Every structure is written in structure tokens, then in C-alpha cells.
Amino acid sequence: MRPFTALFAFCFLSIAASAQQPVWPPSASHTVLTIWPNGAPDATPTAGPEGNDSTPSSKQIAGRPIIRLTNVSVPTLTLYRPKLKNTGVAIVVFPGGGYTHLAIDLEGTEVCDWLTARGVTCILLKYRVPNTGPYPKSPAALEDAQRALGIVRAHAAEWSFDPKRVGVLGFSAGAHLAAALSTHFDKRLYPAIDANDTLSCRPDFAVIVYPGYISLAEDRFAFNPDIPVTAKTPPAFILQAEDDPVHVENSTAYFLALKQAGVPAELHLYAQGGHGYGLRRTELPITAWPDLVDTWLKTIHMTP
Q1: Res. 22 pLDDT band, cuts 50 70 90
Q2: How many Å apart are CA 205 and CA 266, to the nearest integer?
Q3: Cβ count within 10 A of residue 89
Q4: How many angstroms separate the CA atoms of 102 and 144, rounded?
Q5: From CA 284, how far away is CA 270, in angstroms rounded?
Q6: Whole-angstrom Cα distance, residue 228 to residue 50?
Q7: Longest distance between any two alpha carbons in the chain, whole Å
Q8: Residue 25: is the preceding peptide bond cis (ω within 30°)?
Q9: Would you tell me how many other CB atoms lie within 10 Å of the CB of residue 129?
């Protein structure tokens, strides 16, 4: 075989092998931490083993399937380190899925790829599902989120980011979880386990993407009192489409509550977009939202 032909074949096979590598579970190059060393509090049995419940007929986004992880009983944190540069910012990502499953690639690993390419440390929280929220219906997912923020801050020096620049980014139910954590950080919902639980679980900022459970459709879209916004609630970036079947009032209600509390907030509403698009670009303008977050993080002086 000629040298050029051999090199071409090697490169082709390497690219093909790389493309076939699954995004979940994470590869050995990623640090993965189990957040509850002796079992999670308020644990409930799952219907089966953890796994992907997507089928060939499941919804696709931008022509691609979604990994729908369910029956999660052992929550974990997965570290994705910045590429090329490091801004000193860390973001903990909460995938959505209606508290029944986690869109672990669409609203998880793909988000971390975007953040790390921009110099942000990404930590993906695989929180418990199903039937683990919204709080207070179940405290489990919020317990996982509170515990996760303490662990992340405890690793700030080791993972090379500023413990005072730690945010959260959530989608759908994960966006509700981000808002719940932003308003339930003064007291842990579980007895302290170790030194991680002595560190603040208040995010320094929150990115809220097509949230649910924040306005009450059964009560004329009144603001959910279980999201008790105060002046201590962190700044938020909020995004949703008017035609979202989960209802755009979830975003407008949270924005108005933040405004009334004097908390800086940025709200972006689009006419079209529906629900559950993650970062996958389509012909709709709303799917360019990551560029808006890039700008907002500079505006609130989190990234340079």
C-alpha cells in the first residue's frame, strides 16, 4: 500500500471510530463522581435498571435521535474540562425530561461540548428520575442539585475554576430544577453528610431554557409559590418560544418575579420554536440562543 493511501485509510478509520463512540456513558477520560457515598436520601425503587428508553418511533430533533435516560437511582457528576482556554467559570447542567427521564445527550453532553469549547468547565448532573420532582411533590432531584453544587465548589481548585463563578443551566424540568435551586439554597433538604454540605449551594447565575412547573396552568398561570424568589435569588437568563406547549407563561412569570425582587434578569421570547430543541440548530431563529448566552455571561461579568 502506498504511504499516502495508508495514511488516508488510517485517518478515515480513526474518524469513523471516533464518530461511533457513544456519548453516554462517558468515556474513561472524564471524571465521574457518585454524589451520595452511602445511598441517596428519600430513595424510592425504580421500575428497572438504568437505561435508554428511546425507541425508533421516539421524537427526533434536527433529524437525530435523543438518548432518554431513565430509572436513575445513583446520581452522578461528570466533569468536562475546558478546551484550549479556561475562563474560570463553571456551569452545572441539568437535562430535562419531565422528571421521568433525562435527555442526556440533547440537553447534557452536547451542552458540555458547547461550553467547554468556550472555556467554561461543564459538570453534567445525572439526577434521579423518574418521579423525583417537581419540589415539593418530591425532594429527590432538588436534593441531588443541592448536593451537587457543594461538591462542585469543593473541587474548584482541583478543577481550575473560581468557586464564586459557578452557575447552573437547565432545560424544561431541568430549568425548573435550576430555578428551584436558585430559590432553595439557604437550607439543605437533607441532613449534612460531610464537608461538601457546608459549602454554599446557591448558584451565582442561572440559565433557564424553556422551563416548566413555574406557572400554574390550572390556576390561570399564576406564579408557583414553591419558587420563592427573593433579592438573594441569582441573576437569570430566560428563553422560551410563544408556541411552546409547556406554556411561555413559565418564563414570563419567573422574569416578573425576579424583576419585582430587584434581581437582574434577561428574557428572550420567540414566536416559534416549540419545546425540547436543546442546542441543535434548525431553520428557526430561537435555536441560535447559545450566542445570546455567550453575550449575557460577558454582560454579568462572568466571562471576559
Answers
A1: confident
A2: 11
A3: 23
A4: 14
A5: 9
A6: 33
A7: 73
A8: yes
A9: 27
pTM of the model: 0.92
How far apart CA 149 and CA 218 sit, in angstroms, is 32
pLDDT tens for 182-220 read: 999 999 999 999 999 999 999 999 999 999 999 998 889
Amino acid at site 3: P
Q: What's the rounded Cα separation, in Å, for the pair 147 and 189? A: 9
Which of 240, 212, 239 lies closest to 224 in space, CA to CA?
A: 212
Do 71 and 50 form a contact (C-beta atoms < 8 A)?
yes
What is the 3-state secondary structure of the chain? CCHHHHHHHHHHHHHHHHHHCCCCCCCCCCCEEECCCCCCCCCCCCCCCCEECCCCCCCCECCECCCEEECECCCEEEEECCCCCCCCCEEEEECCCCCCCEECHHHHHHHHHHHHHCCCEEEEEECCECCCCCCCCCCHHHHHHHHHHHHHHHCHHHHCCCCCCEEEEEECHHHHHHHHHHHCCCCCCCCCCCHHHHCCCCCCEEEEECCCCCEEHHHCCEECCCCCCCCCCCCEEEEEECCCCCCCHHHHHHHHHHHHHCCCEEEEEECCCCCCCCCCCCCCHHHHHHHHHHHHHHHCCCCC
Residues 261, 263, 269, 274, CA torsion sign: negative
β-partners of residue 171 are 209
Calculate mean pLDDT across residues 146-173: 98
- What integer pLDDT is reported at residue 21 of this predicted model? 61
Q: According to the 3-state scheme, what is the secondary structure of 200-241?
A: CCCCCEEEEECCCCCEEHHHCCEECCCCCCCCCCCCEEEEEE
